[in-house]
Amino acid sequence: MNNLQKRIIADCAILTSLFFLPWWCTLVASILGVFYFDFYSEAILGGLLLDVLYGIHTSSFISTFPLTLILSSVCMISFWLKHRFIFLRA
Amino acid sequence: MSSLIKSKPKPNILFRRAWKLTFAFLIIIFLFYSFLPTAFFRIVEPVARPLFKVREWGLGVSRFLPDTFSSKQTLIQKNAELTSRIQELELLIQNRELSKLGFASSVEPFTSVDVTPKVVARIISRPSQSPYDVLILDIGEQVVRVGDKVVGPGSVALGTITEVFGKSAKVLLYSSPGVETEAQQASTGAVVILKGIGGGNMTVSVPKGFAISTGDFFMIPGLQNRILSQVGGIAESDVNSFKEVSTSFPISIFTISWVEIHE
Question: Is the ipTM reported for this complex over the cut 0.85?
Answer without folding.
Answer: no
